[in-house]
Design goal:
The structure holds two protein chains of two kinds. By secondary structure, chain A is mostly helical. Helix content of chain A is about 80%, strand content about 0%. Chain A is built from 13 helices and no strands. The longest helix of chain A has about 40 residues, at about 235-275. The radius of gyration of chain A is 24 Å and the shape is globular. The mean pLDDT of chain A is about 80. By secondary structure, chain B is mainly alpha-helical. Chain B has 13 helices and no strands. Chain B has helices at about 5-20, 20-40, 75-110, 115-130, 130-140, 145-160, 160-175, 175-185, 190-195, 200-225, 235-245, 255-280, 290-295. Chain B starts with a helix and ends with a helix. The chains are: A mainly alpha, B mainly alpha. At the A-B interface, α1, α6, α7, α8 and α10 of A face α4, α5, α10, α12 and α13 of B.
Chain lengths: ~325, ~300
Amino acid sequence: MRFLARRLGFLLVALWAALTVNFFIPRLMPGNPAESMMATFRGRVNPSALHALEAAFGINSHQSLVSAYFQYVNNTLHGNLGISISYFPIPVSTMIMRALPWSLGLVGVSTVLGFILGTGLGAVAAWRRGGALDSVLPPTFIVISAFPYFWVGLLSIWLFALTLKWFPILGGYTETANPTWNWTFIVDVLQHAVLPAFTILITSIGGWILTMRNNMITVVAEDYVKMARAKGLKPRRILWQYAGRNAMLPNLTGFAMSLGFVISGAILVEYVFNYPGLGFMLLQAVQNEDYPLMQSLFLLITVAVLLAIFVSDIVTAVLDPRTRIRS
Amino acid sequence: MTLLRPLGRAARGSLTFLRRDKKAAAGSIILFVLLVITAFPNWFAPDDPAAEIYKPGVGLSFSHLLGTTSFGQDVFSQLIVGTRQSVLIALIVGFFCTVLSVGIGITAAYSGGLVDDSLSLFTDVVLVIPTFPLIIVITAYLKNASFWLIVLVLVVTGWSYGARQLRVQALSLRNRDYLLAAKARGESRWYVIGVELIPPMTSLIVANFLGAALYAVLAASALQFVGLGNINTESWGTMLYWAQNNEALATGLPLWALAPGIAIAVLGSALALLNYAFDEVSNPALRPVSSRALKKVGA
């Protein structure tokens, strides 16, 4: 219980920090960028929306910083994120809900797949110490981890979409397709998802392989694994049910920590593939100087990462009693 | 003189280390070559990288090793001259991140109590907030951020992982007998930290420097690629930006877009290989073993 309270407390502190950072960034920037944004959009949006924006970014308002801050926190907590400028008059929350499923699908599936595959490969590599997998995988993935995500995306577009023409180049689905739940559309969406998902998978899997291998090497040397061998258990059973289970625990914590990293990469992958998710929308908002949309996307991505970290902390604690006792 | 002896020993030790460890040796050689290119780009680059003086869109040839851009610039020259920015970002951001990590991580561990609690909380919060979206938001407001602004943003967002690792390591050393002995001798706080606490952590500190440098290279090139750096400077990231905006891949100029990515990956791999090698120094169990050696010990 105490553990849960601590993690919940940390989640709240982190959420508050993200909210506060989000509030102060536009106000701390030199030359008031929000004001130049307003100048661009004056006349294009209606006066009441303009007024709401002024309040949100602290322009021309006689409100004190403190009361503006509380108003902002109150608005955000009620899901009132303001109005997107580039898609006026659609509210930011509607825009975000449109993009969210694409990102959740793409990033969610490829991250979970990467975690499972990487953890499995790492375990096997360490189990057959000095074998083929063990000597090939670590150096290969050390090198691959140094490739920029977006560049791997460019390379796979060039190779698989432009040269070999196996997959479509851009987007989440064919523009002319009828976006309903029918078989052709689902196949179309899957075809469009293959290359971006492959890009995320190939660049993130190395981390899981290397950490799992390193954990596993430590665990295999433990007495209880020797005991299991001495009992004459099948190697496969020792590998997965004795050693693998314990070696996976630090990887689960690592899963939480590196999630932010994967999300960062996914933003660029979506950008390269014009994939209609949150990352692509974030960079488009940047290019259109749509600051309300940009700030809300930053906040949403941060909240998603923080919640995922919280969940994986809880899962780790359920699986590993030591973490509960230690704190 | 007493201080010089460990330095000499360290130098000799690192030479043996390089000879034994292939990963470290490969990483060092690549890094050395890139440093030479950074210092003397004119020895290697045949042309002014910005000059639009050639036939646009030429493929591989002897006069243009990597072809030309659709503006008629020499891709190879751009690649050579662009080396400097990536290498400098890596070294400078890596250095300042390490200074912050060591300062904050070790202060937290050494002080303990309330200082430790608040510094650790601060570190953890910075660590969990996803860095790249934050950098995007900040640089979006800064508009064509200069080199030093990008360095500042990357340092502010990049120190936390190292600080956490170093704190844990320092905590495990804090109550060792030799540290307690130094305190009992009445040595000053700075002596204990600088002479007794930090030296055993060197390999971890170096690994952190390399990790931060790798992060800086990748993040900076990504920012420049999406047009959030200064797009008129010569760097690998801006090469990718111009290649992407002129559809280099679709117009049959793949080298323009692929070459800078490979260059980033070469620098990145050098840092990652060295990083991994230093990990193996601090944890000998991870070192590669040949199956023959395993058979010999009967495992």
